[in-house]
Amino acid sequence: MNISVIGSGYVGLVTGACFAETGVTVSCVDVNEKKIKNLKKGIIPIWEPGLEDLVKRNIAKKRLSFTSSLKDSIQNAEVIFIAVGTPPEEDGSADLKYVLSVAKEIGLHLNHYAVVVTKSTVPVGTSQKVKRSIQNELIKRNLDIPFDVASNPEFLKEGSAIDDFLKPDRIIVGTESDKAQKTLERLYKPFLLNGHPIIFMDITSSELTKYAANAMLATRISFMNDMANLCELVGADINMIRKGIGSDPRIGNKFIYPGAGYGGSCFPKDVKAVIKTAENNGYSLEVLKAVERVNNRQKIIVFQKLARHFEGQLKGKKVAVWGLSFKPNTDDMREAPSLAVIDKLLEAEVQITAYDPVAMPEAKKHYGDNVICYVDNPYDALDNTNALLLMTEWNEFRILNVEEIKKRMKDHVIIDGRNIYDTSELSNNGFSYYAIGK
Ligand SMILES: NC(=O)c1ccc[n+]([C@@H]2O[C@H](COP(=O)([O-])OP(=O)(O)OC[C@H]3O[C@@H](n4cnc5c(N)ncnc54)[C@H](O)[C@@H]3O)[C@@H](O)[C@H]2O)c1
Asked: Residue 16: which of 83, 104, 103, 69 has the closest Cα?
């Protein structure tokens, strides 16, 4: 089977490499020519565990190739995946210009039956827009080539993307034809051996399922952050509340960890986009509006705790920031809480020394080389600092060398935005330790 994947970012590249691993011949396309040039040599543009090996292995087996020509890529493809970005517009709605320009280009070059699958996260109605756009181009070419559209939102998580793709909890597919359904069932069969389902539905429901999933997860996080802030006011411990409610099977223990707010390329933009979809349909998603407000407040909570500790006297202080990516095991800093906190620190004229195992090159793209001081070892960030801010719970930060920290820091203040440290250990060692909700 031949397939084409258009857009070779986090989703497209993982999709292409994982399908190639099952024996499918995959052609990945991207408009970024430098990215394609590098990928051809096995150089991966993102940091994702296991991806480099997977890509190199499948290039060597000639099952995975890269091109900047969409026309060449779709030549023999039975299935064409659209996996380009859908960033937020000013008003919060999803910007579909990349998806629709790909659809137009498919219409310009399609010369055989194919299933055109939207894998990008897109609002309700987008697959129909894709269909119309392809049809319009075919009409202009005086061609009557049959094709189907389908929606197949992606649920992989950065940091465990390969595992998520190879062993999915479920695959959601929206179709409007038996032929498209059978084709996608065949393509996905190798991933269903763990017994998890492929759920077929209509295209509209499939498109909305992705937003509903991310909105629900974001809601759990904001709910716990809101509760954590109440805990601080009344003297309760959010960890105890989390254990107490998480043991109820109706609630479950996943995604109820409080922290410094959610970030990343998906939750913030998808919550915004579904709010906008509702507005466009004359409805107000009140819960999600609150989820967003709570998150915006939470993203700067680490800064606020620092400011409170130093009674607002932050100018000239020196802090260490551990962790920059929006979560561990990725270099992705899109909408990361660290960005919100660093912006506030810079505004307050605080000197920042930062360390992240993989995301420092991303941070440099954002802030340049000179605004923040970067170090190669987390402990080197601590020399003569007034406080340590923990923003991302990378494994390497979990067990502290308390003696070393005490020696290096000027003031013994730790603000733990991910609740990974032990309050009594740090208090007994003379630290002023602040966490979230305890
Ligand atoms: N990143 C995630 O964890 C994740 C998870 C699930 C769903 N999604 C969704 O998947 C989609 C893609 O996200 P991503 O994180 O992979 O984005 P990304 O920015 O990493 O990758 C998108 C790629 O598409 C390329 N592109 C843009 N226009 C193109 C065109 N006309 N032809 C070919 N290539 C083109 C870009 O150069 C880029 O390399 C988004 O809708 C996102 O919401 C992302």
From this structure: 83
Q: Which domains does the chain carry?
A: 2-201 (3.40.50.720), 211-297 (3.40.50.720), 299-434 (3.40.50.720)
Report long-range pairs for 31-38 (Cβ below 8 Å, ≥24 apart). 31/68, 32/8, 33/68, 35/8, 36/8, 36/66, 36/67, 36/68
Residue 265 CB–ligand 1 contact under 6 Å: yes
99 lines ligand 1 (CB under 6 A): no
How far apart CA 217 and CA 229 sit, in angstroms, is 19
Amino acid residing at 12: G
Closest C-alpha among 238, 299, 253 to residue 423? 238
Q: How does DSSP classify residue 192?
A: G
Asked whether 156 lines ligand 1 (CB < 6 A), one says yes
Residue in the block written with tokens 């969409």 = 70
Count CB neighbours of 258 within 10 A.
Answer: 28
Catalytic residue among 18, 28, 231, 266: 266
* Distance (Å, whole) CA 66 – CA 36: 6
Mean pLDDT of 310-337: 97
Q: Is 18 a catalytic residue?
A: no
Residue 314 to residue 390: CA distance in whole angstroms: 18
Residue 10 Cβ < 6 Å to ligand 1: yes
Global pTM? 0.95
How many Cβ atoms sit within 10 Å of the Cβ of residue 244? 10
- The type of residue at 62 is K
**Beta-sheet strand order (sheet of 387-390):** 373-374, 351-355, 318-322, 387-390, 413-416, 432-434
pLDDT score of 162: 97
Closest CA to 347 of 304, 382, 380, 385: 304
Distance 86 CA to ligand 1 centre (A): 7
Q: What percentage of the chain has pLDDT greater than the value 70?
A: 100
pLDDT of residue 193: 86
Alpha carbons 21 and 39: distance in angstroms, whole number: 16
Half-sphere exposure of 289 (CA within 13 A, CB side): 9
Residue-wise pLDDT for 49-107, tens only, equals 999 999 999 999 999 999 999 999 999 999 999 999 999 999 999 999 999 999 999 99
